[in-house]
Amino acid sequence: MGISIYIILSGALGVLIGAVLAGLIIKNNSKKIEDEAREKARSLVREAEITAEGVKKDKILEAKEKYLKLKTDFEEEVGKKKNILITNENKLKQREQILSKEMEQIKRKEAELDSKKENLNAQLHAVQVRKDELDKVTHQRITDLEKVALLTREEAREQLVEMLKDEAATKASSHIKDILDQAKLSATKQAKKIVLDTIQRTATEHAIENCVSVFNIESDDVKGKIIGREGRNIRALEAATGVEIVVDDTPEAIIISGFDPVRREIARLSLHRLVQDGRIHPARIEEVVAKTEKNIDEEIIEIGERTCIDLGIHGLHPELIKMVGRMRFRSSYGQNLLQHSREVAKLCATMAAEMGFNAKMAKRAGLLHDIGKVYPEEAELPHAILGMELAKKYKEHPEVINAIGAHHDEIEMTSMLSPIVQACDAISGSRPGARREIMDSYIKRLKDLEELALSFEGVNKCFAMQAGRELRVMVDADNVSDTTAGNLSFEISQKIEKEMQYPGQIKITVIREMRSVNYAK
């Protein structure tokens, strides 16, 4: 145990000695490190001082260089401005020299002008003296003349003025008369030339409307089918269309007679369809005629559109196009209205072009000038005024409206198109053989005859036949009895005798047909 304590103590003493030695070593090392750090700090301070001194010297040198450069630039700028000032001073001196020379010249010219002015004053004085002398002599001569002529100066002047006025008026009136005569002669020649050129350049056919149409057939065997058993087919066709069908010995032809072109056209087209179909009996005839009446409106529109295309007229209202097509089935004094209007349109275009006016507008006015004649409703206005109202309604050009209304002098002409349309209408209507006055009055008499019969109650349809010698009246079987039909025929005949004038006699036939229709379903 004593050894163990000794060993422990010896170990502790050794550790203590080691610790002391280690502390001494560490202390010596710390002092050494501190001395080295102080030495490094001093060296860094010395290096920083040396570097700062070098930077300071560089900045001072740089500042001196900038100063010298600025100084040099300033001296150069000052030198340039000084040179400019010197140059400007030299220019001013030169200008002063030039101005002084010019002033000297001006002074010399002023002196010359003063000299000339003095000479002029002297000349004016001499002229004034001479004028005064002449005035005295003139006054003396006038006084002597007044004494001789026994007239004052004012009286002589008045007489002279009056004489000159009379002479000038005589010469002026003579000159004006010569100018007017020459102008009238030239205008007449020019007008005749334009009209003749227009007529010669417009080659149109004379389309005279007749009251018959010819329907061609392939063989005479078809005539028997058209007539039907005991003539029932032909009677049904005449009753449905309002025309007279004449089947005679004329080979391969049937005559359709009627004053209304629309009815004749309906009858012709219906016959054409019936012959092509082959089925010809009263029921089929009525069916085909009803369809044809509907299709005729489409044909009228097609005719109007084709006419506008042929004449190069665009932008026409659809209602006006329909009326243009309706002209195809209307005649004026025997002259087909559509052919007449086409001819007037072409004449107007040619004449307007010759005179330097708008040819397209003139052509439009020429086509529409008789549009009032095909107005669908009866009107008491003249056809020119009615056509003007229609053109105004469908927004035509004011010059076209005036030309339509003024072509028969119902209104005042306000544009140059109006006399052109009036002249061309007269040219078209006055061609030899173009019109027949009797035809128009004949058609009017037949229309009045039909309208008179239609004014009675219960009348559905009415057709004037046999050139107005027969009147066929279709009545409603539900409202008119057999007895009433006989009385109606008598009343119509009495009214015709009182209100109308006609040659020969008129046969009034009242047709009352009873039909009962039912359908089996």
From TrEMBL:
Major localisation: membrane
Pfam families associated with the record: HD, KH_1, RNase_Y_N
Subcellular location: Cell membrane
Coiled coil segments of this chain: 89-137
InterPro entries tied to this protein: HD/PDEase_dom, HD_domain, HDIG_dom, KH_dom, KH_dom_type_1, KH_dom_type_1_sf, Ribonuclease_Y, RNase_Y_N
GO molecular function: hydrolase activity; RNA binding; RNA endonuclease activity
UniProt keyword annotations, A-Z: Cell membrane, Coiled coil, Endonuclease, Hydrolase, Membrane, Nuclease, RNA-binding, Transmembrane, Transmembrane helix
GO cellular component: plasma membrane
Biological process according to GO: mRNA catabolic process
HD domain location: 337-430
Transmembrane segments: 6-26
Membrane topology: Single-pass membrane protein
The EC number(s) this enzyme carries: 3.1.-.-
Superkingdom of origin organism: Bacteria
Matches recorded under HAMAP family: RNase_Y
The family this protein is said to belong to: Belongs to the RNase Y family.
Job description of the protein: Endoribonuclease that initiates mRNA decay.
The protein's name in its UniProt record: Ribonuclease Y
Gene this chain is encoded by: rny
